[in-house]
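Sample A.
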Amino acid sequence: MLPSGELLLQSFDIGEGHTFRCRVVNTVTGQTKLSANAAKVLQHEPATPDAPEVTVLRREEVVREGDTLIVPCVVTSQPVAEVRWMKLTTDRGSVLAVQHGPLLTLKPARPGEAGTYVCRATNAHGSTEIKVNVKVISGLHVTLTPARSTVDVGAEAELICTVHGVVWCLLLSACAAEPEPAAEQGVGPSFTSIPPRDAGVFDHQTGTTLECRADGSPPPNLTWVSAGGRQVTSVPGVRLVKKGQIRYFSFSPDMYRHDFHSTEVRCLASNSAGAIISLPVHIRAVMNQPFNLGVRDSYASPGSPALFTCDVPDYVTDHVTVASWVRDDEFNIYPSDDTDGKYVMLPSGELLLQSFDIDEGHTFRCRVVNTVTGQTKLSANAAKVLQHEPATPDAPEVTVLRREEVVREGDTLIVPCVVTSQPVAEVRWMKLTTDRGSVLAVQHGPLLTLKPARPGEAGTYVCRATNAHGSTEIKVNVKVISGLHVTLTPARSTVDVGAEAELICTVHGWPHGPVTWFKDTRPLTVGLSEDRSVWRVPSLRPEHAGVYQCFVGNGESGALREEAQATAAVRVGNTPPVLTSSFMKQTTDSGRPTSLSCSARGSPTPHITWLLDGRPLPENPRYVPGQIALRADVISHLNISRVTPAEGGLYECVASNVAGTARHAARLNVYGPPVVRPMGSVSAAAGTKLTLRCPAGGYPISNITWSHEGRGQLPGHLRLAADDSLVFDHVTRADAGAYSCTAWGAGGKTASGSTEVTVVVGPKVSPFTFTSALRAGDRESVKCVVTRGDSPLRLAWLKDGAPLARPDVAVSKVNEFTSILSFRSLRRDHSGNYTCAASNQAGGANHSARLVVSVAPFWTTEPEDLDLIRGERAEVKCAADGFPAPVVTWTKLIKNGPATSPEQQNGSLVLTTTNATDAGQYTCRAANGVSPAIRKTIQIRVRVPPRVTVTPPVLRAVQGQPVEVRCDVIGDRPLAVTWMRAGRDLAMSEDVRVSVLEETAGEITAKLLRLSAALISDSGEYICAAENDYGRDHLFAQLTVKEAPAMPTHMALVSVASRSMSLTWGHDPTADVKYIVQYRRAETNGTWLETAVDQGARVTLAGLRPWVAYQLRVSAVNDVGRSKPSPVIEVQTDEDLPEGFVRSVELTALTPTSLRVSWEPIDPDLVNGNILGYNVSFSRVGPGGSPRDRQSVQVSDGASTHTLLTGLDRFTAYTVSVTAYNSCGPGPPSAPVSAKTAEDAPGQPPSDVSCATSSADTLTVTWTPPEVRHRHGILRGYVVSYFNADDWMSAPLSQEVRRTRGTLRHLVPYTRYEVRVRGHTSAGAGPWSAPVLCWTSEDVAGPPRAIAAAMERAGALLISWQPPKPPRGRVLGYSLYLRLLSSNETLSHRVPAGQTSFSGVPADRYLAWVRAETARAVRRLDAAGPF
């Protein structure tokens, strides 16, 4: 029986007829269970002889260290096959005959036994094998040392975390799917389509589908995994997973599952070449939760800004955003980059009123949109601006929404500065530079606008408000984040085994967190650089092949959260050979043909050679080797046409390529006398290990002996190995000489051979070093001396691993063992590693030393003076060379202050956004520790071209009103600023309505264009142009002068439905007008709702309430304003199905068979018509609360609020719901309400009434309660009625009992009683049970009665008596006692039970008494007197 529970019959006998069952145990309760059926072994149908079929239970087995693992190999074979287990080594060679038979047993399992095992079955028709991967896991144990430590401040501290045991990978599904290494590496997977992060946010009423696609060769397998790494599978009714897709079904709110509907998933793609995992996709089902939406009044001073905020509850903010603001329920304000208007809706949803006018009485509502469903909602209330109480004049108060603002690069950022001031303050924004100096007048007014936001604009901004009483400021930190993008290079690489491999992860964007790496979806921590941007291995191994990913995130939350990843594939180029099959040990007869084979795989394709006893095959016509190469595989055969004992020995196949070698050896034994083949001579290097094998053939060989120089006694430091080879662990010169081996066979037959061993001493190179602190132009030489080694010696010099061949480097050979390397004038390119290599017949030796030539810095790119334009990004290059590589630094010279270090990258001075503070002197210095260092000081000048700001850029005026436009210009003076229209300078205009004024304030030059009374002809485009020596700029101002439109007329109703209506009105198609349609409920006269009509004169109002009267009116709108509204018309919508639930449903039990149902009508706003009546649905509550036998009653009176349900079961729970209906049909049912009918007396008597006697005067009565359905209530107790059945005059007695058991006491022994029982509820008693007869048990008999004596005849008396009454038991007989009064002698007589007299008593005077006898005892009766 295997540890995993299976039963293995190792050998089936056809005569056996056993059957087998399995028994299981519940490990929690200890209960066991036997299988319902029994199994037996059935014989296979006789099969045609063929190669074996092999199967195993699992292709992967996992066992805990120390436990027992038994793996069965089930073989079906005709004829019976030989079965053996083998283990593959790390270089894919096989270790034969690990275990014989069908069972692989590891007892106990050890970590070193983990690996790939092969079960091979062989018969006369062929061989079949199957692989099983065995994983041995050891328990995890972690130590953190030292456990406690005290370290001084400033001293080094270190903690070491040591993990013992197998550490599992992060993604369990990836572990299970890890591909087995293969020679054909294929192409690793890459994603072609992956859902974005928020693609899994969906409405619970619609569901959603996510799809992942990937390419690769072979085509990758696609799965989805959870955040914890477990595979995501289909869940009925919740989600369906198939072929890279996840479909989430729609569901009702009560089916919400947090673990399914609020989680993260990733797509995992894997094939034989590797595996990759996607960025997480957020799954979140959005429930349509009701929420309150409101706005609050804002307080402001006249002329100051006011800010409104839409109060959206926190639990919906992730999918509900502010879409617009509505002023006076008529005018919509939408988000816009235009900040010149009076109202500015910020990108974050707030509404800013830039300047509060005390005469304004506008109200404001916010409108939000559900970004998942698209539904909109208007705030329940409207807010307005309230004036601050008049305050004492003082310095301004300044507030901002947030002290830190985060904006994505390219988006618009608007930061309002809300100022409360008396008098009104001047507000401006400034930006702090890196040296804390401030650049004034970045922007004027309460709004800081970055449009679009750029990384160079990040920093600390100051809002400063100033009035006559002081100045107040507040700081806001602005962070501009740029999108993350990751590259992993090279994207695809092929690297030879043993060569260096490197991947570089480059992150673009800011900010970003640490880089994390994965290989085939497993966390990668080995081989990473300190900053985790580079993965490098100095020597690639085959297991390094796969797909690599680097991940990075920006650490932000919510909508600003961003993650990125890149993928690269590493393929293995040259791979060492792996033996895929090999030959086994064989024993055969002489004269038979024999074949040996090996196959190997590698890149490039390996070459296989054959050895016999460690030497190349001897020349022999019977050897026929052959080799076939197919792509990366090679198969080699060694055929021996007719073997003799001389061909016996240890055969070895060796597979080799440039990447390595793999070998396998096994003996070929040939029956026959011993034979020793010629051994030849052997040369060995002193200090190395040497093994001499005796090339003996023949079989069997009982022993092999060795001798040295003819002596059988070998030196003590030599030893014989298990295969009788002679081993020299450390060869010395004394080991040289002749060695002979003798093979001993059967019958004492022997064969011998000999070899001559020569010992050669290898070279040793004396260490040498170069002089330190050498500089270019110096001279240098080193001497290489070989202090030991046999001649002939060969000396050679190498530089950086390559042969040295330079005309400017001299090599002088002093003698055979000495060489000098000389440099006449050192240069930078002489630096490197120099190696002196010596070699002879015994081997080689070398020594290396590094030559470092220092070179002082010199310019490769020298910086120059520079003129820069303000606002541009500048990069000033400065580069130098030398050895070691120089370090380039920049400093900025500050007058009367210390120098500062500006931003620099790779030696270049970087000015992100050039401004006036960047002007000045900068010094670039290059130094590498070799004097002299070099430096260069340059002058940077910042020039400011004109920058024009027009306020406001778009003007809309009503004819006759004054108009003023301001043009502010910043730039180096002198500046030329001009207002023009149609090419004419307006400062030269003769129109008295036109005037141009100039103002100068600090660095701003302003030109004001004024029109005292605008005319329609003034509409058009105006240009403010500015120019200086460094550029020019201009902006347009668009003026539109219009009149308000006329009131719409001829309103007509087109159609009316339950929730919508269509309306038309008169329209002039040539007029540039739009329309605002307003509507409200007629009965409330509440706030007007409105909808805009941009084209035409028809509107369909949707979202109305059924059966409601609405008031409608229309206004025309153009750029000037709004017309008066049209006359109001009133329209009522059609009926629709009721939407509301019947409220406050109550049930009252009136009788055991009826319930009174009462309710309150539905909410009038949800009636949607005239209620015609109600459907009352009711059903009995079945087991588990499920409804049964549903019925309904119709109440045809819409004004009714109750009804009576009759004919119901007694004391039964019913569930009732009420539905209102109108002419369109029924509405939704009310929530079910449950109640029971009233109690009644039981309808059935107790059953199974029985009695038991516990004593002579006691009976115990038991019974079974009536069936539940006949109880008709809660049983409060039982009444037991009983009477003496042997005494017809006996009166019945009764006893009240609470349980189903009662005890009747003080009864007459040995008496029949008739007993019956009935139960009762609070409503009354039920029927009596059928009477049962019960007997009390026997007791001591009662006294006999009426004892008398009479003369029977002369001289004889007759004594008589009557039986006891009550008898108290069955009388068994009587004892008559007679005491003679004369002598006081007592006589006794036994009288049978049926006899009540005794005759023949001699006449005399007696004292007589009688006792009756029962089974319990006798009862004595004293005599009444003498007879």
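Sample B.
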Amino acid sequence: MAQCVQSVQEFIQDSFVPLVAALCSEEAERLTRKNNLGFSELVKPFCRLTSEVHMRDPNNQLHVIKNLKIAVNNIITHSPQPGGIRKLLHDVVSVSQPAEGLVTNVITAGDYDLNISATTPWFEAYRESFLQSMPASDHEFLNHYVACMLVVSSGEPEPVEQFLKLSQEQHRIQHSSEYAYPKWFIPNTLKYYVLLHDVSAGEEQRADSVYEEMKQRYGTQGCYLLKINSRGSNRGADEQIPDPWSQYLQKNSIQNQESYDDGPYTVISNKNADHLISDGLDNDIQVDGLSNNFKAHPLQLDHLSDTSSSFDGTDYIKTTSSLHESKKTSSGTPHGACLTLTDHDRIRQFIQEFTFRGLLPHIEKTIRQLNDQLISRKGLSRSLFSATKKWFSGSKVPEKSINELKNTSGLLYPPEAPELQIRKMADLCFLVQHYELAYSCYHTAKKDFLNDQAMLYAAGALEMAAVSAFLQPGAPRPYPAHYMDTAIQTYRDICKNMVLAERCVLLSAEILKSQSKYSDAAALLIRLTSEDSDLRSALLLEQAAHCFINMKSPMVRKFAFHMILAGHRYSKAGQKKHALRCYCQAMQVYKGKGWSLAEDHINFTIGRQSFTLRQLDNAVSAFRHILINDSKQPAAQQGTFLREYLYVYKNVTQLSPDGPLPQLPLPYINNSATRVFFGHDRRPAEGEKQAATHISLDQEYDCESSHQWKELEEQVVAVVNKGIIPANFQPTQYCLNSFSDNSKFPLAVVEEPVTVEVAFRNPLKVPLLLTDLSLLWKFQPKDFSAKHNGATKELACGNDMIGAEVIAEFLINSEETKMARLKLFPHQTGELHILGVVYNLGTIQGTMMIDGIDPSIGLQAGKFVYNGMSVRGRQDLEIQGPRLNNTKEEKTSIKYGPDRRLDPIITEEMPLLEVFFINFPTGLLCGEIRKAYVEFVNVSKCPLTALKVVSKHPEFFTFGGNTAVLTPLSPSASENCSAYKTVVTDSTSVCTALMSSASSVNFGLGTGSQPEVIHVPLPDSVLLPGASIQLPMWLHGPDEEGVHEINFLFYYESIKKHSKMCHRVLRHTAVICTSRSLNVRATVCRSNALEDEGKGDNMLVFVDVENINTSEAGVKEFHIVQVSSNSKHWKLQKAVNRSEDKDYKLASRERGKLCFKAVRCKNSGENYTFADVVFGNEQIISSASPCADFFFRSLSSELKRTHTQSNMFQGAAKQLFDEAVRLIQKCSEVDLNIVVLWKAYVVEDNKQLILEGQHHVILHTVGKEAFSFPQKQESPEMVLLKFFRPENTSLPTRPTPEQLSNLIKTSLHYPESFNHSFHQKSLCLVPVTLLLSNCSEADVDVIIDLRHKTTSPEALEIHGSFTWLGQTQYKLQLKSQEVYNLQLKACFVRTGVYNLGTHRVFAKLADQVTLFETSQQNSMPALIIINNI
């Protein structure tokens, strides 16, 4: 139980006090009414004695009485109405609410920290009112009147006669059978005569004389002169006199609202001025009025018997408010206005005199008389009664248990019965605190009542015996709790008297609590909860809950559970405030512990009760909690919660329609998933036109792709700004999300929409309908074109500055996550701040299905059916930035950076480019050339310029070089034309190559330029507003098969320079699927034949072409139509192994080998020489677009790749040494590039299509095979992990023997067969010319050694042996590119086939000493046949 203001002893003593009746004359009542008080009310604050009093018990022992209190009440001539008592108790509890600064206990139990009210004043007020309003009963005398005060005014004509009349009236009330109420203790009631004198009226002598007459008539002990009203009612208003009546009358103000309106004689009281009474003059009228009043009260059992929940919450609001008003009026009326402090002392003195001289002597005398009567009567009658009983029964009758006893509560004793006299004496002793004597009397009476099976009487005796035993000073015996248990069971089960049972429980629980027996007290309180009284059950359950929490080991969950039960019963009893308080206290336990269903129930109840009490903010908060937690409720229940929430919220908003929009809890918004898109939506494809993919909200964010786009933009910006990226460069971000860099303010363009994608999630199992959904924003106009940036204009923001799109209806199905895209249209430059979303939250009417909403309701706008309930509100978009983790301070603390994706800066108007691709293929053969068209459209009001495109794969496409033929210009005109520029050849030119030349500068690949950045050839370099232009674009299928994603970034600028945005970009990702076509391999070898052209060097080029197509594209065979070469130093001269058939066809898996003669071309500077060897009737001009474009692009990407690889090895070798190595290496380099051009015929939809293509082979080194497709690197085998640092690999300091052997090219000129007559001359001498050609660009020292002999026997067998004549070793120095003829003679002694290639050639650079001479490789054996004639 909760803490009480009084101790348990004080509580029990104040619950049972001597009752004194008061009977006043009309004039006396008028005098007290001057103070707005009745007589009983006048004396009430002074009824507790301030000093000890003494009396003697029957044994003449002195007995001390401490802190004695008496109760003076007006006489009530009828018993209180049950309905009136119910109303009284209901109102007492209703008006007693927790104070604002109520002391709370913070109890920590395990994981719980509970804030609980320490006291329950409503329970104490209920308990006090309940005990004081109990009607008098015949089985006990505690609330019977012991004395009666007769009060007469001294201003009456004949006061003594008035006393006589009042005395007769009292006698009639007590002894006449006409009145059954009130009850009197003994027939000879003490009458005390009080003469009231109004001091302000004067006539003190007359009052004194009347008082003297009274003393003579009634004795000095039986009368008293009380002087009051020493102060006139019209003066002394400024003097502050204390008002001791307010605390007492506040309790009675509940019914005082009806009391004083009925006339001056109507007095309201009970034992402590709480009963409804009249003075007997207007008895009948008043009783009828009161009974009518009670019948109308909603808490009468008559009304409750029909239905247990027939209350309307609004009734209680009215009742409670009226009670508060009456409380204010009664408390606002001053009491005791005519009384001075002296008068207060006089009243206090009067009560003491009455108690000392009248009441206590009367009680002492009555106790003695009762004791004497009992001794005398008991000696005779009881002994005779016992003997008779023993005679007939034969032995003592054993006491039966309560359960065995029949319902004998109807047994009545006559008033003079000795058993009642014992009880009467016990009650008198109890009232004057003689608990020891009282206990013995109760104990004796209990036995007699049980023997007689008078259960009502026995229960009363047991109850008071237990209380007396507890109150005995020194506690000679323990508290007999079983007495109380028996009494409660008897009252409740046998006597069916719940009022008495409740009194027992209240007393016993308080006693048990004082002994810290909280568990027993809780069980006792819970036992008396029943359906007959919700108010009583609620109060007792609440006290039981406090018992559980106050135990040594607090039982927190039991506390919460019983608080819930108490709250439920409070609610049924109409005590909405108390119900709400109980649920709120219990919520502390259930909150956040995973008891979701319990939380939902509590929050729902709190919400309803708060709404009933018009605590709308609390109601909204409670319903909000139900909705935002992950509810496990079924869909129907969630729908109920949602409707209740909407109803409450609607009421809240109606109270302040002009107030700020409230924050709505539903649906959830995933703030971090909010995406912002700047710009118009992408236009869909139209026929053959395919719009650039650009970027949209439908695309998933790819971090790697985003990084690639950023690199491309940086690349093109660097090119535009002469290789330097500006400091204020900000990568263009069209779509901002949680992965993008949002640390800077994004830039948006005026008149272009800003789209915000908000991620809504519906956590409920019922659908949510959002209507009139739009963005909430704040805008600050600024003129960025002014000299002083940021000059704020004082303009009112309206729809003329920012246009907002409103979504009329947005349905989110049960447990669905759905994206809403909301747009803003800025019409002016400035700073825009997107704050949140605003919408109407509602539900829809529809047939509930198992999985949610019946799909037949329809998902189109305007098809939803409202249930008439929606509220307007908002939700803020608050995005937390990324956690900072750069500095030490940031790493050691939790700091977050800014996220400015919702704060765009609206910049000046910019051009807007749209790109469309016409006839753009989705599938190509590897190496296939296809001509498409690109349409550029300026859809803005500003001209654009400096249009460029950048891609990581420049070899994939070209717009043509400066020599490109731009006809035909339209896609329709080029339907059956070749993508190449062709010329018809004559029959005489088929054997030799056709020459042409071109510079890489013409194709945008000059020195220092980046091949990835390509200038788009716009006419006049400007695209005007609204203008469009179509340009041809040639595409080259990638050499690797598979799916390729190729990114294009179109860059453009405005003619007018802006401070915020310098350029714009447009993205396009082309997806091309390539399938296999041809595989080309090529090898170059030095030719042994040294032409007579002087310096003319030549080589042989072998080209292998294999058809590796799998006929997926319907290609049956490939035709090799032309092989071209392009190089600065070499050119193809002719085809060596040319077949008779001009056409080279390769069916599937066929392989062809072509051999070409290549010669060194005349020095053409930086220009490339193109040589075309044609196998058909048309020459494809390889030096024109697009053939040359793709060649130069593939060459550039190949050079870039090889340059990257060579950069991996960087050392610190000597400069001179490097130079020498480079010269030697250069001898084996050729830098010859082969282009194989082909055609393939495809039949598709009964229509023959011609596919064209080209493959590039880049030959770097003599003798090394090159491929048209990149070779896959074999993955290295797994090796053991090594845990040491590798040594620095130095630059290779020596050239390889293979490189050294290519310095000098040798060739032997001799007759293939030589006839000689060995008969005539035994030695055959053959002249042989050795041609030495310096392949390097430096002077070379050469040593020719002719002494080399073949040592292998196989060679001797085959070729035989011969001898060189003359000088056997020559030392020469050859200039750069010099050809030297050395005449030699070979000597043969017999016929046969001989190999003349036995000489060895050593060479080294002339200015190098350290290099050793290396044997030069002969190309092939030089065989000569010697014939004899």
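B remarks: The CA atoms of residues 99 and 121 lie 9 Å apart. The first helix runs from residue 8 to 15.
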